[in-house]
Amino acid sequence: MAPSPTAAPVLFDRALLRARQSRAAALGAATFLLDRVAEDMSERLHAVLREFRTAADIGTAGEQLRNVLAGRVDQLTPVALPDLESEPLRLSPDILDLAVSALALQFVNDLPGVLAQIRRALKPDGLLLAAMIGGDTLTELRQSFAAAEAECEGGVSPRVAPSADLREIGALLQRTGFALPVIDVDRVVVRYDSAFALMADLRRMGATNILVERRRTPTRRATLLRMAQIYSERFADSDGRIRATFDVIWLSGWAPHASQQQPLKPGSAKASLAEAVKRLAPE
């Protein structure tokens, strides 16, 4: 079923995202999370016993994913996510055996629309395999900033993007026409010397605040210092280093095909559950 035609809310400034990613590359990009996802995606695809001749990489920054999949896919074409959500992906219908995406879909304003376009571009029995940030990612930073701003400034501004929920993503795959959807999460906990070291890494990941409703004035020094103190008080290990959570949501789904396993029709069971329970009950 196609997604609702209602215009999606614009949460992210995608032109700013490209600028932040360019700045990250100039600073020396921190790619540990993308490296992990690329290797994991390679392993997941090697577990699928079929050939993928034509594939598209949807929105992934950097070359890590394309490098690790070079020997697994005959042709892997990068496809950029548009800055304006009204612009379609440059994909023709029924041309792909495989669509992949690594750490890009969390910055899409109209995720149902993008997933529906990917679904149309897949051949019957074609596969979507993607990883996106979601769940409890950066919950420690979110809580620390909220507490510090409430204490120092009397209010809270949006700093960390809203995170996708596993159940919502699973339902969305079904709603956009994918068969056999599978969702799982890989929780990565990274330790830092301080909250400021974490924030420096986020800049080098191109993952700082790109919310349209973000605060436009510099954060007060007192608020930053208090945030770092709260972070250390609440989320530090015994050695003083702090924890930062990254939840990577993995999603996969297939374009429907007659060869795929189908659910039984209601009422088509040949054995009664009540009778089975009766037979198992002790005399």
Strand-helix topology:
Layout: H1 14-27, H2 32-46, E1 52-58, H3 64-68, E2 73-79, E3 96-102, H4 111-121, E4 122-134, H5 139-153, H6 166-175, E5 179-192, H7 195-204, H8 221-235, E6 242-254, H9 273-280
Parallel strand pairs: 1-2, 1-3, 3-4
Antiparallel strand pairs: 4-6, 5-6
Helix pairs in contact: 5-8
3D architecture notes:
The chain has helices at residues 14-27, 32-46, 64-68, 111-121, 139-153, 166-175, 195-204, 221-235, 273-280; strands at 52-58, 73-79, 96-102, 122-134, 179-192, 242-254. It is built from nine helices and six strands, in the order ααβαββαβααβααβα. By secondary structure, the chain is α/β, with parallel strands linked by helices. Strands 2-1-3-4-6-5 form a six-stranded mixed β-sheet, sandwiched between helices. Helix 5 packs across helix 8.
Number of helices: 9
Poorly predicted ranges (pLDDT <50, ≥5 residues)?
none
| Beta-strand percentage range | 15-25%
CATH class value = Alpha Beta
Give the H and E element order.
Answer: HHEHEEHEHHEHHEH
What is the CATH architecture annotation? 3-Layer(aba) Sandwich
Which terms would index this structure?
about 280 residues, alpha/beta, Rossmann fold, six-stranded mixed sheet, 9 helices, 6 strands, about 20% strand
What is shown here, in short?
This protein has 283 residues and is an alpha/beta fold.
